Amino acid sequence: MFVFACLPLVILKTMPSVKYHKGDMVMGRWPGSNLYYEVKVLAFEAKSQLYTVIYKDGTELELKEQDMKNSSGFQPRSRSRSRSPGRRRSRSRSPARTTRRSSSRAAAAAAAAAITEGSPSSRRDAKLKEMVEVRLSPLQQPTMAAENNRNNRHENKEENNTASKVNEMEPEKNQRRYNLRRRKDDSKPKPQQLEDPRVVTGPAVTVSTQLDFGGKIGAYFWLLFLPSWVLFVILQVNLEDPSLVNFPPPLPPLESFWDARALGFVILWILFQVLLYILPMGKLSEGMPLRSGERLKYRTNGFFAMAVSAAVVAAAFHQGMDLTYIHSHFLQLSVATFLISILLSVYLYIRSRYAPPEQHALGGSSGNVIYDFFKGHELNPRIKNFDLKFFCEMRPGLIGWCLINFAFALAEMKQQGLDTPSYAMILVNVFQLLYVVDGLWNEEAILTTMDLMHDGFGFMLAFGDLVWVPFTYSLQAYYLVSHPNALSLPAVAAIVLLKFIGFYIFRKSNSEKNAFRRNPSDPKLSYMRTIPTATGKSLLVSGWWGVVRHPNYLGDLIMALAWSIPCGFSHLLPWYYMIYFIILLVHRDSRDMSDCRRKYGSAWDEYCRTVRYRIIPRVY
After folding, report:
1. pLDDT in tens, 157-184
2. pTM of the complete model
3. Which domain holds residue 102?
4. So what's the pLDDT on residue 327?
5. Is the residue at 255 inside a domain?
6. In this structure, is residue 11 part of a structural domain?
7. Residues 222 and 157 grouped into a single domain
8. Nearest 5°: CA angle at 393, between 392 and 399?
């Protein structure tokens, strides 16, 4: 009985003491300075012994107990007029000293990567805190602008003394929820800048801290695997028993890979699409703000290009041009396009070496030649106003995909002795044509996607746009040429219904996202529910975006299912697109989750609790 009576005392004694509780208003030290500001305690984590607090400007940090004091009887530290280390430390950019900046800079500051906090372990770490500036405040205080202006002259003098030393320092590895950045000259007006929290920027370099696709070793793998896989599926589909699990078929003679006419056809097709792109047709659309604050303009006339291309192909067919050449020389056409994508990738990497650092893609600036060549070193390579990435993303490969499908329908009629294509071939052609036409009609929406906003233009996108899309997405039609699959009218009706369900979800969710990203304050969107973040942005939790986190991916998968069912269930090969798309979208979701958790912190955790499922409701 004595033991049980003493047990509560033992438990209380072993539990860590909590000095401050949730909701308490205390004084918290601003990191990198000796200044204290009023904060509100949000939580205490017993394992790390850290308090989560929020400053008046909305910045959330985790502080140790020794960095916090009771508000009662607190005496603020008086400022010294001497030029001492204490004075330099007091110049850190604290919440009470911030001026109104663009929301883009605030977004980058508040989205600093979370890394474990620890106290300085050496004089070098302590010295670093004196010489770097902590940019955190997501919500600037306009009332403090006057104080900031009065001190700008003093800061500029101190800045000259410390700037040369900052590059010799390494950022402290044991900090959490904030980035250390070199102090810049704030006395001169500058254009709005968007800074990415994944990098620590110096005066002339941008260094990526996170590598995708398996990192540097993965880049070597994908450079070899992607072309090999395209070759495998093209050779496999012509077999009597095509299957993804078959042993790779023997390679044909080397001369069968090359056809000069095929190369000329591909070059002519790309030049024709270039001509349609540069014609002054369609509107000029603004892209999303870059890190420099600049908004690039894009000629969004993709639907016009599609219509003209269809008219030219129809005229050529009417004049007796044999489009079944595309089917009989599919391998040679793919090899020719692959060579062009290689040459384009080499050109892109060479020109990126001479591009200014602010034009580099953050994810493609690893310093490793192979990885940067694969991922893309320059974000928006342009020849005057001709945007290479935007053009390749939406034109030659995407419209070429529809041309290839049409040629396969003609080849099926010729090979099977039919007067019209089969129901299965018609469904595949119409479904995929609708997908492409919708993308080109809503071409402006691509300006808010990950490819255009974040990924550099290198081998990954060049090969994907020019080779992967037209020569693997057309596999269902290619398969049906030699392996017809009869469909009944009820089956056709069910497949059509499935397609339009997926298309509705895909288009509706993408329209909601695009409208919200472009103008969140639009009165037409006032009915939408959102979750505010410390960056000044809001997370959409309304409409389809309140059902799953990626409803556009859900619509894409349903459409992919509708494309595959017409090919039947005899072989796995025509289901390749469905399998590939699941892998692609799950990987994109993981990249997006990682980026958003880094950018939005606790707001993203709340969003994940509100919208529980990632892509498929109640499944994933």
Report:
1. 443 443 343 333 333 333 333 333 333 3
2. 0.62
3. 25-182
4. 93
5. yes
6. no
7. no
8. 80
